[in-house]
Every structure is written in structure tokens, then in C-alpha cells.
Amino acid sequence: MAKSISISILLLLLILFMSSLSLVLSVRSIPTDSDSVSTTKQESPTPTPWPEQFHSILSMSYNGSFEIIDLWYDWPKGRNFNIIQKQLGKLLYDLEWNNGTSFFYTLDSSRECRTIHFDVGILRPNWLEGGNYLGQRNVDGFLCNVWEKVDFLTYYEDVATKRPVHWVFYTGRAAHVMTFEVGAVLEDSKWQAPVYCFNKSGEDKHPEFHSHAAAHSNLITAEETAFASSFSDSLPANF
Ligand SMILES: *[C@@H]1O[C@H](CO)[C@@H](O)[C@H](O)[C@H]1NC(C)=O
Ligand SMILES: *[C@@H]1O[C@H](CO)[C@@H](O)[C@H](O)[C@H]1NC(C)=O
Ligand SMILES: *[C@@H]1O[C@H](CO)[C@@H](O)[C@H](O)[C@H]1NC(C)=O
Q1: Does the pTM of the predicted model rise above 0.90?
Q2: Quick one: which of 35, 49, 114, 224 could link to 104 by a disulfide (CB 3.0–4.6 Å)?
Q3: InterPro entries from the entry (predicted)?
Q4: How far is the CA of 165 from the centre of ligand 2 (A)?
């Protein structure tokens, strides 16, 4: 009787010893894990800022429709231009100023123009700073570093040349960068919205623009609102 009790106690002690050992091991494994996490973070590359001036041709797709965007980014002059050719459709001009005013217009006989005031100006060259690094992936045949601006877009930069290759908005609208000419500048005379953009009666006919921009501001940061406007993601489908 006394012998079996002492064997039970011995077993109990053994179990206690084993479990405390595994506890010690698991406690020790925690700092090891966080060490490896911070090491990976330190190794994360930072996204390359945009050049202060560039021209890029973008091939865009969204929900089965396609367009080409001629993008002229001009940070020193506080302006950004998207010239948008919809497939077998309209040619649209989206001219954005750093004071928050954007003009969306056509230059054909329809003479359409919408003026939108955003709370923020155009994207800063370092707008991608603070993005969440997701590692490397192959996209469009290029090995890319990938960042995500939370809930807004995923951005792919070529590892070898540091040029942007591709980005995808949270809406699913996707851009493929076809050309990227650093330093290219569009002549001043082209940055002129047509007179019918300055007709008061033609302004603010589309209050949904404002609510859309406001909705964006609530969901995402000011910078990202500007980005949304930069890439005409906020344009209503009927324009
Ligand atoms: C996507 O395209 C289909 C077919 O043209 C259309 O019915 C649908 O409303 C579109 N969805 C969005 C979110 O635009
Ligand atoms: C912003 O700048 C553009 C270009 O100079 C101008 O046409 C527009 O009226 C300005 N907007 C405001 C709100 O000052
Ligand atoms: C402004 O718009 C109104 C109504 O669309 C039009 O009758 C008028 O001629 C326009 N004025 C200018 C200067 O374009």
C-alpha cells in the first residue's frame, strides 16, 4: 500500500517536472519568436519615392473594362494629369492641382466638365511611406517587392530597377505600368482646363463627387483620397 502511494507520488512529481519543463521551454521560445519578427522587419526594404517629375503610360482594367492612362506627375509645379482613353470610348482629362481642385473634362463637342474640391492635394513623392511590406512576388513577369497601404491598394515595385510595375486598388481596379519616363514634363500650355470648366452654372452639379470624396476621407487617410483622385477611381461610371 505504502509502496504504491510512493510510486503515485513519484509519478505525480515526474509529471509536474515535465510540465514545468515544457512551460520553461515555451516561455523561452517567446522572445526567440519576437526576435525573428523584428529581424525580418529590419530587413524590409522601404518603397522608392516617386521621382518628382515623370510620365507613365498605364494599362488599367476594372471589372472587364479597359483603359489607357497617360499619367504626368509634376510635384514641383503641384500638378498631376491623367489623360484617360476608355477602350473604344471617351477620352477624359483629369487635371489635379495641389490646392485640392480637380477638373474632369472632355475636349470633344460634348464639352463636359466637372470641378471637384478635395481636402488634400496631389500625392507627395513619398506617399507610400509607412506601407505594410508583404515580401516579394512575381507579377507581370517581374520580381517585385510588395507593399500594402492598408485597405486601399497593393503596390508592386521591381526589385531590380525600383520602378513601379503594378498596383491594385481595394475596388479591384488594377494598373499595369507600361512606360516610366523619369524627368519627363508636359508643356505648360497643356495644363489648362477649358473655359467651360469655369462656368459657375456648370459647377457642383454632381454632389455625389463630394460625398464620395468624404466617404473616402472617412475610410482612408487624406493622402489616399488624393491617390484615389489621382487615378480617377472616384470618377462615377457614367462620366
Ligand atoms: C461589372 O460588370 C457587370 C457587367 O457589365 C455589371 O453588371 C456590374 O454591375 C459591374 N460591377 C461593378 C461593381 O461595376
Ligand atoms: C487651384 O489652382 C488652379 C490652377 O491654378 C485654379 O484653376 C483653381 O481655381 C485653384 N483652386 C482654388 C480653390 O483656389
Ligand atoms: C454657362 O452655362 C450655361 C448653361 O449651361 C450656358 O447657357 C452659358 O452660355 C455658359 N457660359 C459660358 C461662358 O460658357
Answers
A1: no
A2: 114
A3: At4g14100-like
A4: 32
